[in-house]
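Translate sequence into C-alpha cells.
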Amino acid sequence: MRHYKKGRKLGTDASHTKAMKKSLVGALFLNDRIKTVDARAKEIRGDVDKIITWAKKGDLHSRRLAIAALGDKELVREIFEKVSQGMFADRQGGYTRIMKLGNRKGDNAPMVIIELVTEPVAKAKKDDAKPAAKKSAAKKAAPKKADEAEEAKEAAEELEQIEEAVKEEAETSVEAADEAGDEKAAVEAAETAAEAAEAKEETQEAEAAAEKKADEAK
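Result follows.
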C-alpha cells in the first residue's frame, strides 16, 4: 500500500525517481525545452515552478534550496541571474508549457515536449472596450429620446386643441354676457378668457420642449 506516498508511479524506486526528476529539471533549465514521457513532464512541473519562485525571492536561503534541488551551483547562478534581469517578472505562475506529440513506437508511451514559457504576458486593452460601450449606449439612448420627443409633440397638440376649445367657449360666453347684460356672466367669461390665456402659455412651453427634445434626438 502506498500510504503517504504523494506523486505518480513512474516505474522506478524512490531514489531512482528522485535522481530522474532532478536530471529532467536541470535539462529543462539548460535547454529551455525537452522531449519526454507525458507522466514525467507533468511530475516535474511543480519542481520547476518552485525553483523559479525561489529565484524570484533571490535571497541566500532560496539559493541554497535551489542548489539542493538541482545539485548544480552554476546552473542555479544562471537561473537566478536571468530571473533578476526580468525573466518571468510579469508571470505569477504557469512557467511551463506541455505540447503533445503522440505515442511512441514500441511501447506506445505518450510523448510530449515541455518548455519554459519566456514570452511576456499579453495584457488586455481596457480602453478599446470603452468606446464600443459608449456607442452601444448612445444607440440605445437615441430611440428613447425620439420616443420622448414624439410624446411631447403629441401633448403639445392636445394642449393646442384644448386651448382652441376654451377660446371658443370664452368668446361665446362674452357674447352671451354682452347680449344679456348680466354682470355674473361677464365675470365668468373673463375667468374663462384667463384660463384660455394660461392654456396658450402651457401650449407654447410644451411646443418649445418638444422642439428641444427633437433637436437632442437628432
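Note: The first helix runs from residue 14 to 31.
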